[in-house]
Write a structure and sequence with these properties.
Length: 299
């Protein structure tokens, strides 16, 4: 986000309402080269702020007090948003107001400690595979759980992006960066059969449904597999892949490339989950051993 250089606001911005100024800002954001997803995120955050201040409020009547009051309101209400989303909303609105020249150095909602939702066990992943109703669901699950694709990456795939015979996928990730991902055996077979039976065109989407539809499919799969639906989401499957890859001995640099992380420090966050496995195994092997207990007493 910090790489985006915005055009300055129009000279008459002081005579505009907040709603009008917001549209000018979003136009400038788009003109700067920001992705559609980024512009959409900014729009959602600014819409929240405008619903609090009123879109017809003159630009000249908005300042740091309004921003602070909105932050307090968001902290109290939460409005079904996660803490991470509120963190980014505060940054986006702060940048909008700074662009207007209405705020200077004002705080954002702290991001706080970054935590991971508990990954699934591989037995639970296999239960999901068994609950798949067709090849499309099987390929969907495998690309999420065995390749670690993000939901948006999965849904953007076209048939020209996959080669089930070589077992590779060309993925366009965040900020338009492309990477090559290896697919699991289930996805290879499912996509191979689908391609041979349907004879799709190269630019046809493989998964022609929305994120909401993907979300619902995963919930239905979880129910059929006898799992807690609240624990089965696209990003949980990505976490599961990363954790399982490290458990099986994959190197951090290799995992970083597969996940599309720009900084290996992001990938390292998964190490604590694997460390917990090591601690539990150590406890099982050594701490319950009579010889080890005796050695501790003698020492």
């Amino acid at each position: 986000m910090n790489k985006i250089r915005l055009l300055p606001p129009p000279k008459n911005v002081a005579r505009l309402s907040l709603g009008e100024a917001a549209e000018k800002f979003l136009d400038a954001l788009e003109a700067s080269g920001a992705s559609t997803k980024t512009v959409k995120s900014y729009r959602a955050a600014i819409k929240s702020f405008l619903s609090f201040t009123g879109p017809d409020t003159p630009v000249t009547e908005v300042g740091e007090e309004d921003y602070s009051a909105w932050l307090s309101h968001m902290r109290r209400k939460r409005q079904s948003l996660s803490h991470t989303t509120l963190h980014y909303y505060s940054i986006f609105v702060r940048r909008f107001l700074a662009w207007l020249g209405r705020v200077d150095e004002v705080p954002a909602i702290p991001r706080g400690h970054y935590g991971f939702t508990k990954p699934l066990t591989w037995e639970e992943v296999e239960a999901l595979f068994s609950a798949a109703r067709d090849l499309l669901e099987l390929a969907m699950l495998s690309l999420l759980a065995e390749s670690g694709l993000r939901a948006g990456e999965l849904l953007a795939l076209t048939w020209r992006d996959v080669d089930p015979y070589r077992g590779i996928v060309k993925v366009k990730g965040k900020y338009g960066k492309e990477r090559i991902v290896v697919m699991g055996p289930a996805a290879r077979e499912a996509l191979r059969v689908l391609a041979e039976e349907a004879r799709p065109r190269p630019y046809d989407r493989i998964f022609p449904f929305t994120y909401q539809a993907l979300y619902k499919r995963l919930k239905s799969l979880a129910k059929r597999a006898g799992l807690d639906p609240s624990m089965v989401r696209p990003h949980v499957l990505r976490h599961t892949f990363a954790t399982e890859a490290l458990r099986r001995g994959m190197s951090l640099p290799a995992l970083q490339r597969l996940l599309g992380h720009s900084d290996i420090k992001i990938t390292q966050r998964y190490l604590h989950l694997v460390t917990e496995d090591v601690e539990r195994e150590y406890e099982r092997v050594f701490m319950s051993s009579p010889q080890w207990r005796a050695a501790r007493i003698v020492g």
